[in-house]
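If you are new to this repository, start here. Below is one unmodified record pulled from the training split, so you can see the exact layout before writing a loader.
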Amino acid sequence: MSPVRSPRSRPGRRPEGRAAILAAAEQIFAELGLDGARTEAIAERAGVNKALLYYYFRSKDALFRAVLEDQLQKAGTQINEILDSRETVRARLVKFMSLRFDFVQAHPYFPRLMHWFLSSGPRTSDRLLRRYWAPLYRKLLAVIREGVRCGELRRVEPYCAAHALLGLSAFYFSAAPMIKRVSHVDPLAPANLRRAKHELIELMRHGLFRHPEARVL
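And here is the target side for that same chain:
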């Protein structure tokens, strides 16, 4: 009798299988959300069989959490380094906005995934919020409070300022399809992306910085 193969040694199992499933799931979850997505469609787009999907991920909920965690971890690692640095508040906020814009540009499904994430209810969001979102949010609030205290920023309400900063870059990308239909201008064209990034940072500088024209060190 032939020995029974373990799941890892079955023919056709490729090391990149998990990555392919995550990439396909990212697109479909962004398009349809957790409830609308179907594991059959994800497996088909990933080019794998459904059994392999369930080998890596116990359920559709587990796959959704894995996609979100992958995105939040990528974003959080880079942003935390900036917010934890010893640079001036203005320099940290400029780098924060620049990195956030670049991240969403490189991960265009991120805003829609976050929408579904925040709409998915406690079963999906609570643990990920506590692990990734809450620490980043608290650090951003702390940086804004520090800037107000030391005079680099205007006397703004930190919560409102943080929400505005978080929304600026994300909304640009999530609204891009609508803007293209209405204006017949492609917001995602390279020249428009460069211009938008510059203008968003300028908007932040003039809205928050006490001396917006001063050199950012």
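Two things worth knowing about this chain: The chain has two domains: 13-57, 66-208. The CA atoms of residues 76 and 166 lie 13 Å apart.
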